[in-house]
Amino acid sequence: MLRALPVQIPRRLFSQSAKMASMTPMEDLMRDKIAHTFTPSTLIIRNDSHKHAHHAAMEGSTSKETHFHVTITSSAFESKMQPARHRMVYALLKEEMSREGGIHALQLKTKTPAEEQREKEREAQA
Amino acid sequence: MFSRTVFSALRPISRPAPLRLPLRPIRAPAYPIPSILHARLLSTETKAAIDKAVGSAPVVLFMKGTPETPQCGFSRASIQILGLQGVDPKKFVAFNVLEDAELRQGVKEYSDWPTIPQLYLDKEFVGGCDILMSMHQNGELAKLLESKEVLVAADQ
């Protein structure tokens, strides 16, 4: 009993504080939504906001989560052209992109598992 | 903000001679419309103006800033790609969405695309900067532009 305590308490505190005040609420939300909708085999979210913080459009913005680069590999993109794939992601994140102080820029790479495989093979050859 | 008319922004910025569109100015709404609602209210005037803009040249880019001084890295990249591909300036027109809030919002709804830049080829939506970049890299863009005959002739 006594030995278990020091382990239990910090763990519970940590998980609670992580839930209450994530440093990356937007990224977490995007990850949740994308994972749920596209069940991607690859999902990479890169926050580029610091690179754009000095831009005129970001004047007055306090958010640290405005510019993202997202790579999604999902079979949900099969037999769809790139614009249609991007529109699927935009539709999913419509609220986050349209609201003031939300996502300002979203770079997208949308691939099917087969396309990702081919890309890897090409890179291996090069 | 809404007192600006579509005239100002629908002047193509890549040509010296301004294109005159026979459009009535859009009246300011009597009360402010929340941006989320505003996004769904593409007026017939704005739609007609964007129709004209999209059809004003074979290659049309809606961008932030001008080709000479882009105001956004993604717009800059798109202009550079079109330049590298050798798009004929006579067949190209760019529209600066920063000149007109109505256009900036309207074109997003018109294209069902939430970001700028946006490229149109023969009135057909091609994509934004990421799509342009990947098509540039995989050779699809060169093929597409060639098939539409919008490149500067090789012997010139």
TrEMBL record, chain A:
GO terms classed as biological process: [4Fe-4S] cluster assembly
Protein name: BolA protein
InterPro entries in alphabetical order: BolA, BolA-like_sf
Pfam family name, one: BolA
Compositionally biased region (Basic and acidic residues): 112-126
Stretches the record annotates as Disordered: 102-126
Signal peptide, first to last residue: none
Coiled coil: none
SUPFAM superfamilies membership: BolA-like (SSF82657)
Family: Belongs to the BolA/IbaG family.
Gene Ontology CC terms, in alphabetical order: mitochondrial matrix
UniProtKB/TrEMBL annotation, chain B:
PROSITE patterns: GLUTAREDOXIN_2 (PS51354)
SUPFAM superfamilies: Thioredoxin-like
Signal sequence interval, chain numbering: none
GO-annotated biological processes: [2Fe-2S] cluster assembly
Any one GO cellular component localisation term in the record: mitochondrial matrix
Pfam families given in the database record: Glutaredoxin
Keywords: 2Fe-2S, Iron, Iron-sulfur, Metal-binding, Redox-active center
Domain Glutaredoxin: 59-126
InterPro entries: Glutaredoxin, GRX_PICOT-like, Monothiol_GRX-rel, Thioredoxin-like_sf
Entry's Gene Ontology molecular function annotations: 2 iron, 2 sulfur cluster binding; disulfide oxidoreductase activity; metal ion binding
Protein name, as recorded: Monothiol glutaredoxin-5, mitochondrial
